[in-house]
Amino acid sequence: MDFSSKLLENAVYEMSQLPGIGKRTALRLVLHLLKQPEERTNLLSEALTDLRAKVNFCKSCHNISDTEICEICSNHKRDKSLVCVVEDIRDVMAIESTSQYNGLYHVLGGKISPMEGIGPQDLSIVSLVNRVKEGEVKELIFALSSTMEGDTTNFYIYKQLEGLDVTTSTIARGIAVGDELEYADEVTLGRSILNRIPFENSIKAS
Amino acid sequence: MDFSSKLLENAVYEMSQLPGIGKRTALRLVLHLLKQPEERTNLLSEALTDLRAKVNFCKSCHNISDTEICEICSNHKRDKSLVCVVEDIRDVMAIESTSQYNGLYHVLGGKISPMEGIGPQDLSIVSLVNRVKEGEVKELIFALSSTMEGDTTNFYIYKQLEGLDVTTSTIARGIAVGDELEYADEVTLGRSILNRIPFENSIKAS
Ligand SMILES: [Zn+2]
Ligand SMILES: [Zn+2]
Predict the structure, then answer these.
(1) Zinc finger, C4-type: residue spans (chains A, B) (predicted)?
(2) CA A173, A177, A178 angle in degrees (round to 5)?
């Protein structure tokens, strides 16, 4: 693309670094901002830099939080014996929106994926095992996506827990195998948490 | 959506104000930035605020420019007797990328559209007529999209030029009627500039 302005070219370039945003889409978004009051752009920029500069992850569950310990972990009404293991904070948001779950979470930050060079050490697995060792957690619910990587990750964690006094379960799948958790409808997802099955059973089933 | 962080919620909200970016996409983009080095976010924010604060439009053709008069208008090798009338700076970029055109441009900033409340006074039509009155321009090439609004705008400008010594033409359409200019392939678009026809002929044809 042939830009008549370095400022424009630079803005389009930076915008197109976002995933799924090509040069043409980036140009469309940037030109949209130019047509809006300057405040619009400033609010967007500030919101992003502010988040990036001040972002904090809960010391216990690794969820994004504005406080040291997130609202979920510090809520005395939640069942601290139950921990739902998820990939990503989007999964926490998806499960929270079902209002069907009253336990805590553990955000792994991804799945084991040799193809993408993501090993166990890149995920918050050690801190999960430590949470279990502290003794308060009685059950881990695996809620990773049901892909090869998800299954591998579940199994890896399961092996790390050997000898520890904790039950493991996986959420029931009312949704198609391979579907992403975050796109499931709330009813199905809520049901699948309630109908979770012992992890051992899920190994036999597959 | 249930956000665990006000900072996150705010960033997602501002991102989702962009056209075509829903809440889920906004969340995905924001979480991507969180996984990247902080510099990435700062470069994006700065590029956007910088552009918005310092953006300048060429005094002559209304193209985006970092200087008072854009590089195209101030290029002595370009044919100043030829002015191509376009909607938007994206059209300038599309035509420039064909390397088939050596004249100048005039960016209207849109099309006349009673449905969207855009009248002639919202577009840079007066300044176009003034450019013609100055006497150097011998031919205007209408390169608006061939929609009802595009045709209305062409005709409105054509009427404003009555009595002035200027030829009008429209770009030849090798591409389907109704297609957006900026998505045309470069060869077709370049050809359509070279094969432009007198505007009067295009009225008769339609
Ligand atoms: Zn927490
Ligand atoms: Zn110019």
Answers:
(1) 58-73
(2) 130
